[in-house]
Amino acid sequence: MTDPKVNVNEIKQAVKDQFSKNANKYVTSExxxxxxxxxxxxxWLDPQSxxxxxxxxxxxxxVTKQLAPYVDYVLATDxxxxxxxxxxxxxxxSADNVNYVVADAESLxxxxxxxxxxxxxxxxxxxxxxxxxxxEAVRVLKPNGKLLLIDNIASENKSFDHFVNxxxxxxxxxxxxxxxxxxxxxxxxxxxxxxxxxRIRKKTLLFPSWVERTTESDEQIDEVKQHLLQASPExxxxxxxxxxxxxxxxxxxxxxxxxxxxxx
Length: 264
Description:
The longest helix is centred in the N-terminal third of the chain and has 21 residues, at about 10-30. Strands 1, 2, 3, 4, 5, 6, 7 and 8 form an eight-stranded mixed β-sheet that branches. The protein is of the alpha/beta class. The radius of gyration is 18 Å and the shape is globular. The chain is about 40% helix and about 25% strand. It has a single domain, classed as Vaccinia Virus protein VP39 (Rossmann fold), CATH 3.40.50. It has eleven helices and eight strands.
């Protein structure tokens, strides 16, 4: 969770500012739009034609677009109005069973037991209090409802954890934290979810498009680049850094995908 000294409102305003400026980049981002987790999440969820689904922090709308053909209705939410507008433009021509609501993942404006399934993909590292999101998810899910969560995670190795989270923050000032699996497990178990399926994979990111998506100056890009290049050989091996001379081609981070079921 966030340091109590940190102003949560300032964090959420930074998220709004960042995604307002870069909304269309997230719609077209290959790592968001073309990853194999999109068809896989449909297989894992096994969506039913009568389901009402909540897609939290929809971003470019890729999960909503993936699930809409299989269910009765999808409600796509995001903290950022401009991000929702971009998602609607992306989705509207292929699905007419979707609606859009500006909403905070940590304070969902919905009644208890409203949804058959909830999804949240590549977003929770922007949440200052992800434990609150987990509690909100279990609240608005129907009995036996499912939560499918996908996000970048930090290593239990403190050095790797610090390196990756500093890297993410240098590149994106709205980044809060990639949380560890043990942190997530604590919140999930306390909320009463049962794990049905999970995987951890190395997700390869192409450096030029990744760094340009959120940085605002050449100086900021260089700061990110130097952080990568000056890391230890052990960290380079951990992130699978690929470079040609001093030009960074790609690196990899850990991504966790988990399917949970509400047990009561």
